[in-house]
Design a protein that fits this description.
- Helix content is about 0%, strand content about 50%.
- The relative contact order is 0.07.
- The protein is an all-beta fold and about 325 residues long.
């Protein structure tokens, strides 16, 4: 069974999560005035679809302002509602109080998709909120920033990782930036068993080649416990993170390198999965790929703690030799730890 959602213009799925009622919540960006029945607001809106287990729409709603709005992540919160992150150039409707250029937005919805609160965070340059998790007394947001003013607590205007904590009403309780000489960005975040969290991103660290993967462990108070940069002779990108039942971390990324992580790269980009302990030390590595472009989008675990990954590939050989189509295909693997 397949379901299609969209309109006559551009509609792009950004995130999808299973919900506590057995259905799912889909987060997308939409330029289509005829996508769904909700009112189209601006040039590019945030479009959320809540569906049951069979894909039947229970509710759908568009959010945004009159400029371009971009979503990045959605989670279901402990009260049954939802939290959305992204970035926007708008300064009206759902997104008011823009500091300049593009700001991070965080929006809290109730279980029916009604807005409880929506706030913008940033400075006078560009910001982008990329990931979020819920903690006992609020939410942690992982973002990128170029600003040095307003909400952002840093001194240099190079692109940096920006982490901030919100209370349940969206007020900032602390914020921390990863300031370096080189630029960095966020790709994924996962809650840690000790109440802290792990952030995965990319960096142009001095002494490494091209773009490498970057991991940082933050404790519950927002202080760094450890960080790790790794990669090979070409570009390496972080894509997804999760935790296991025994407290380890599972990291998924893509690599064009031929050394360190991948002893033999099978194509232009291959997928690799790394299991790490609580200090970030590598315990196991797994390499998946074909002769073309392979990309991982999701990593998770089963009830017995096996690894699930999903993504897309242009390959028709190697680990993807059973794919018969001529175009880009989705893939799903279950792997033993």
């Amino acid at each position: 069974m397949a379901r299609y959602y969209g309109g006559s213009e551009f509609d792009h799925l950004e995130d999808l999560k299973l919900t506590s009622d057995g259905g799912f919540i889909a987060l997308s960006d939409s330029s289509s005035a005829d996508a769904g029945k909700s009112e189209h607001i601006g040039q590019r809106d945030i479009w959320v679809i809540k569906a049951d287990k069979d894909g039947n729409i229970q509710w759908e709603q568009k959010y945004g302002g009159t400029d371009n709005d971009y979503s990045t992540a959605i989670i279901q919160t402990s009260d049954g509602g939802f939290l959305i992150t992204g970035y926007t150039a708008s300064d009206d409707h759902h997104f008011q109080g823009n500091h300049g250029k593009e700001d991070c937005f965080v929006m809290k919805l109730n279980t029916h998709g009604e807005v409880e609160w929506s706030r913008l965070y940033g400075g006078f340059d560009n910001e982008e909120a990329d990931a979020c998790i819920e903690v006992e007394d609020g939410y942690i947001i992982a973002a990128d920033t170029n600003s040095v003013d307003a909400d952002v607590n840093k001194q240099s205007n190079n692109r940096s990782i920006w982490l901030f904590k919100l209370d349940k009403q969206g007020k900032i309780t602390w914020n921390e930036t990863m300031q370096r000489r080189y630029w960095q960005g966020v790709e994924a975040m996962a809650a840690a068993p000790d109440g802290g969290f792990l952030v995965a991103g990319f960096t142009e660290a001095f002494g490494y080649n091209n773009v490498d993967c970057f991991l940082v462990k933050i404790n519950h108070a927002g202080y760094r416990e450890w960080e790790k940069t790794f990669g090979g002779d070409k570009q390496d990108l972080s894509c997804a993170l999760t935790t296991t039942k025994d407290g380890h971390y599972l990291f998924a990324g893509i690599s064009g390198s031929q050394d360190e992580l991948l002893e033999k790269n099978l194509g232009s980009w291959d997928v690799w999965i790394i299991e790490m302990d609580t200090r970030g030390e590598f315990k196991r590595k797994k390499h998946i790929g074909g002769s073309d472009y392979d990309h991982v989008l999701f990593i998770g675990t089963t009830q017995n703690d096996d690894i699930l990954i999903a993504g897309q590939t242009d390959s028709k050989d190697g680990d993807f030799e059973d794919i018969k189509g001529k175009k880009c295909s989705g893939f799903y693997f279950q792997l033993n730890r």
